[in-house]
Amino acid sequence: MAQGKKKFLFPGLAASILVFSAGMWAGACNSNDSSPSGDVDSDSDTDVDTDTDTDTGSENPLDKQAVSTAGPYLLKPGPDSIEVWWETDLAASSRVSYGEGESLDHMAVGEIIKDDYEGAYLVKPPSGFRHKVVISGLEQGKSYSYKVISVKEPLKAGHFSTAPKQDEDVEIAVFGDDRSNDEDHHLVVQTILKDSPALVVNTGDMVPYGKNDDDWRNFFKIEADLVRNTPMYPVMGNHESALEGSFKFGSYFGGMLKKDQAAYYSFEFGPVHGVVLDTNRDLEQGSDQLNWLETDLESVSHRKKQPALLAFFHHPLYTFSNHDPEKQLREILLPIFQKYGVDAVFWGHNHCYERFSIKGVPYITTGGGGAPLYSVGQATGDDAQYFVTGEKALHYILLDVSPTAIDGQVIHVPDHSVMDTFKIEGY
Length: 427
Hints:
Layout lengths: L4 E3 L6 E3 L51 E8 L6 E7 L6 E6 L5 E4 L1 E2 L16 E7 L7 E6 L9 E4 L8 E6 L6 H12 L5 E4 L10 H10 L1 H4 L4 E3 L3 H4 L4 H7 L12 E5 L2 E5 L11 H14 L6 E5 L14 H14 L3 E4 L5 E6 L2 E6 L20 E5 L3 E7 L3 E8 L5 E8 L2
Parallel strand pairs: 11-12, 12-13, 15-16, 16-17, 17-19
Antiparallel strand pairs: 1-2, 3-4, 4-8, 5-6, 5-9, 7-8, 9-10, 11-21, 14-15, 18-19, 18-20, 21-22, 22-23
């Protein structure tokens, strides 16, 4: 194991239009949104459900002409299923061959996703076609291979494992703010690959401009070796949200935005229950997002076997770097996290590493994914009592999560040395 500004619905949160650290999906997604699937084995005559007039259930002439412009990448790892996504320049069919181990003896058929751009007056619909294939009927904890077959040039085969059981250990990489500096972003990704995590969480600001397709395609190009083989959960940062860019975020990550374009959800993965919040959107008392958060955490609190509770969002509750802490947001979220026993909290926005400790719970800034780095200032004032350490450095966090403890390592990039460690015991 190794800058113009946008007005937010939540007072006090400012978004830079030019400046990494969504409810959508998971093995057990609690967003209450439907997730259409159309996976079939090669010997099945099951009909394919599609949102378009395009016949994606069988080979069509465009398969020999279509070029992949993003992906493939993996979303929603469940105990018996996973989603494969990619984008093409033409409306080719949506077909993936897959099988246990290295075999590719089954086929799953999916759909081209139709985007809902009602009211998106500042953004054009994506210029490509995003494909979604749900591979289901898998065995928990097993490893599989897959390959997108409906494109002109063969793509590399990918590999994945279904979500583990709650009593099994998992390794998760957390990082964010990778936009704008491709070389550093690449270094971070290549260093993460040395650890082969089972899951990746990105804390937001993945691209410079969330409304630009080319920025997203560049993101997927840099992360290709990682996201082809490792499922990811993304947080919406201010760069994804600005200028109606949230529509593009939803287009590339499942089309599961709420009616107000907010991207909040929860997921289950082995011994982990993760909650992802959208701090670009309303989180005041009585808001839909805050009500959802309390309901989600309350449901977990009634379980006999408690998972590790992890929270992810973009804007910092505590920080001594460039962007000030969101103190109003802190006043709302901190009591909820403490009430329900959240075990660790991660955010980005400031391009550095910082760790704070409040009643033994780590609150962490992880924004060293490739964006221009920020210095960590002197710890002063009331918040200084919670500050543990910080550093201006490219990095990511590696979490080794067992049913009873979390061992965290902060990995420096590119030398793969350990910058900091922390441990949480008992859930």
